[in-house]
# Entry
Amino acid sequence: MFIMMNAARYAVGVQGIAIAERAYQKAVVYAKDRVQSRPVDGTLSAAAPIIHHPDVKRMLMTMRSFTEGCRAMAAVAAAAYDAAHHHPDADTRKQNAAFYEFLVPLIKGYSTEMSLEVTSLGVQVHGGMGFIEETGAAQYYRDAKILTIYEGTTAIQANDLVGRKTARDGGTGAKAIAAQIEKTEGLLAQRDSANAKAVLKRLKAAREAFVDVVEFIAANTRSNPNAAFAGSVPYLMLAGNLMAGWQLARSLLVAEDLLAQGTDVAFMQAKITTARFYADHILSRAPGTRDAIVDGAEAVTALAIESF
Ligand SMILES: Cc1cc2nc3c(=O)[nH]c(=O)nc-3n(C[C@H](O)[C@H](O)[C@H](O)COP(=O)(O)OP(=O)(O)OC[C@H]3O[C@@H](n4cnc5c(N)ncnc54)[C@H](O)[C@@H]3O)c2cc1C
# Structure
């Protein structure tokens, strides 16, 4: 049954990534066309296409980096699935199978939740036209909403992450993944670039936040299940955020090397900028999410049911 469920969950996660990409492409076209207001830096004396405004660029970068991060996470999971089945070494097959199993609820849960944020931003970039059905931006937003519901709601993915994927082995598998992330941090630390240093700072903080939450989940799932499950979806979001940000950090390392060789310069610069944006704007959410899970469980469950 879980072979079928994993395939379906993976596929729905990829639907989220696909719809996010489509919403991004549509928003970019509109932002280059729609003229409104003069740029704040005074570079143009007349109204300019809205892509000149920093907040519109912020929205487009959020859409772009979320989509690229989740796509990279899904590709890495697919490679792990292949290695789990076809690698000649039995231990390597086992490690890849565990890694793939850990990633599936994140690809389903995190990628579809991010597709809602991305498609919502797509509507926002279009302003009032985004709310008009004929424009098509709102259709993406509505279509993205079903992805967090069918093939198991986000909470059901999070229950799987907490129970089968984290608490069952006392967090050992999750911490083994954290150790792999630490190796990427080591590679980033050897770089001189400001971008690598910035990404390292955020990746390290997010990985430490993840480990804190894994320990909290492992310690509480049996003894205080309401506390552990009160943080289940935030834990899924933190873990998905970290896995996507980790892949973008790896892409920064590759892009810096290829840039130094003069390969595909504009593409590599865009990869580096996108990884940096994700680190500063999205990966930086992780420590706050950790605090909400570890310190905030009681506030979730404290209110008596009669008080709702
Ligand atoms: C357009 C569409 C197409 C669909 N296609 C198919 C299909 O082809 N085949 C098929 O079998 N099904 C299909 N479904 C059903 C879909 O999989 C379910 O709607 C989905 O799994 C949610 O179940 P539910 O609707 O019973 O919601 P509920 O289980 O009632 O969930 C309601 C809320 O309670 C939360 N919740 C429930 N249980 C828990 C829990 N244990 N812990 C934490 N929170 C919980 C949920 O997260 C959700 O927020 C489809 C649904 C839609 C809308």
User: Anything to note?
Assistant: Residues 146, 149-153, 155-156, 159 surround flavin-adenine dinucleotide (CB under 6 Å). The radius of gyration is 20 Å. Residues 90-125 form the longest helix (36 residues).
